[in-house]
Amino acid sequence: MTVRVMAKSHVDAADFRAALRVFALFGHPVRVVMFQRLARSPMTAGDLAQTLPVSRTAVVQHLKRLEAAQLVESSSQGRRRVYQIDRRGLAPLTRWLKRHLGE
Fold it and tell me: How far is residue 92's CA from residue 100's CA, in Å, rounded to a whole number?
């Protein structure tokens, strides 16, 4: 039983650390807005840049960080790169919350 509790707490700690990384990425207000807009519909970096008070270059840099964390994924459509939400990056956060909310 002790081994089982230790293993569970190790998994919990790993999920918590991963959840903290997600929260850290959302510590920047531009990334929060970008994520919210992409949750509504897929968009290009140019489309996002037109709606934000930052340059297209800054939007691309934020998208790279979100993509590296598997919060956003992209696909090529001709010469355009279209971004959309990738739920895999939210999985550790979801698991940790469910574990602590008893779901």
Answer: 12
Are the beta carbons of 22 and 35 closer than 8 angstroms?
no
Query: Which two three-digit tokens encode residue 90?
Result: 């939210």
pLDDT in tens, 86-99: 999 898 888 888 88
Alpha helices in the chain (DSSP H): 2-25, 29-40, 45-50, 56-68, 91-101
Q: How far apart are CA 48 and CA 30, in angstroms?
A: 10
Report how far residue 79's alpha carbon sits from residue 98's, in angstroms, rounded to the nearest whole number.
40
Instruction: Enter the pTM of the model.
Output: 0.81
The domain in which residue 34 lies consists of 2-101
CATH of the domain at 20: 1.10.10.10
